Amino acid sequence: MSTHVALFHVRTRRRSADVRYQALLDTLNASAVAAVEQLGWSASLHAAGEESELQLRRASCEADIVVILGGDDVEPSLYGQPDRRPRRRGYQRRADRTQIAVVMEAVRSQRPLLGVCRGMQLMNVALGGTLHQHVGGHGDTGVDPFVETRVPGLASLSAQLRPPILCTHHQAVDQLAPGLRVSLQAADGVIEAVEHDSLPFLGVQWHPEHPATASLQFAALLRVVHSRGRSGSASSAPPRSVEPARG
Fold first, then answer.
1. Which of 16, 116, 171, 212 is deepest in the core (most CB within 10 A)?
2. Cα–Cα nearest to 78, from 63, 90, 96
3. Under CATH, what is the fold of the domain 4-231?
4. Would you call 53 a catalytic residue per the annotation?
5. DSSP conformation class of 169
6. Could you tell me the pTM of the whole model?
7. 200, 206, 208, 209 alpha-carbon torsion, rounded to 10°
8. Side-chain half-sphere exposure of 122, counting CA atoms within 13 A
9. Active-site residue among 9, 51, 105, 117?
10. What are the distances in angstroms from CA 70 to CA 49, 193, 204?
């Protein structure tokens, strides 16, 4: 029976001022789906800001692997802070809350979960961690928003991971949630990957689903979480009790 991957993104439609940003996300999301299908697996893509929580939870329950994709900043009230960003943009509150519900469903079912960029940040927040609301040097404001980031030790996650590591983000994990540990850091100390001690959860801050890298990087990370879910190799201990995010 084919492995099924449910991928949760933010939304499919935005106001006219954000059309370019939506086009970027659409490209990344399509590349992620293509990488799943190249593995011979099936994929479904779900807009967390548009579908009901019931629909999203059902999609999660029907999947072998859950992926939370990139997108907008996570609302800071969910980790107990006011908005301290130097440049403020709107939040996707419905997507925040429904994706947190998907994360908590994965906790309960011990379903393999991969968080990408916002997805890693949201996983950390859902499990009780916090974020740096602004970091510099990990994105560009030009036509191509991605910057190549030096991340030592990629092979510790998967021998198939190779540069370039392509980032475009201005927020990052700060205080780790209980149960998470740092796996990789950029040369400047920004956390680029986290893993869970007792659940088959993996988060990366960069964009392995970028069209230039998806067939290798994204596919490799999917194999990692799939393998951990099947073997229970994240830990031999049962998962600890996890409280949902504040807010």
1. 116
2. 96
3. Rossmann fold (3.40.50)
4. no
5. -
6. 0.90
7. 100
8. 34
9. 117
10. 13, 14, 10
Going from the C-alpha of 57 to that of each of 45, 48, 60, 109, 238, the distances in angstroms are 13, 10, 5, 11, 23
Helix (H, G, I), strand (E, B) or coil at 129: coil
Catalytic residue among 51, 75, 192, 209: 209
The DSSP bridge partners found for residue 9 are 47
| Dihedral-angle region of residue 122 (phi above 0 means left; psi in -120 to 50 means alpha; beta otherwise) | alpha
pLDDT digits (tens, 9 = 90+) for 146-197: 888 999 999 999 999 999 999 986 889 999 999 999 999 998 899 999 999 9
CA–CA separation, 43 and 212 (whole Å) = 20
Task: Decide: helix, strand or coil at residue 84.
Answer: coil
Residue whose pair of structure tokens reads 């009230």 in the numeric block: 77
Set 9, 196, 207, 226: catalytic member:
207
Cis geometry, peptide bond prior to residue 164 (ω within 30 degrees of 0)? yes
Eight-class DSSP state of 18: G
The tokens for 26 are 């659409």
Distances (CA, A) of 121 to 73, 78, 171: 9, 12, 8
What tokens were used for 65? 């692997």
Percent of the chain with pLDDT over 70: 88
* Residue 167 annotated in active site: no
- Return the pLDDT at 244: 52
